[in-house]
Amino acid sequence: MESDTAGAPSSVFSIMVTSGNRYKTSRGVKVGDTKDRVYDRYKDILNEELTNNDRVFLGSIYGGTEFWCPNGKLKWIHIGSFAE
User: Fold this and answer.
1) Burial of 65 (0-12, 13-18, 19+ CB in 10 A)
2) What is the pTM (predicted TM-score) of this model?
3) Cα angle at 11 between 13 and 33, to 5 degrees?
4) Where are the chain's structural domains?
5) What are phi and psi of 37, to 5 degrees?
6) Measured CA distances, 26 to 1, 8, 49, 71, 83 (Å)
7) Cβ–Cβ under 8 Å, residues 45 and 39
8) From CA 26, how far away is CA 43, in angstroms rounded?
9) Which of 19, 50, 67, 80 is least surrounded, with the fewest CB atoms within 10 Å of its CB?
10) Contact, 51 vs 67, CB < 8 A?
């Protein structure tokens, strides 16, 4: 979480899901699924420029979702900003 000043209301900057079957996306994807499943569920909205062998990317570096899939398995889901 972050805020503009100390004590000010905070906002969620990013969310990272790293394990478990408890948390699924709205399209039914969860950590542990195959990259093929992630790709299939999101192929209509993925960012082709940022999608590669290890990840499926939605949106942009300024606000998006990254599905990190080394070795073809979904290891984590990161939702937020990727720009520094």
Assistant:
1) buried
2) 0.84
3) 40
4) 14-80
5) -65, -45
6) 23, 31, 23, 24, 25
7) no
8) 14
9) 19
10) no
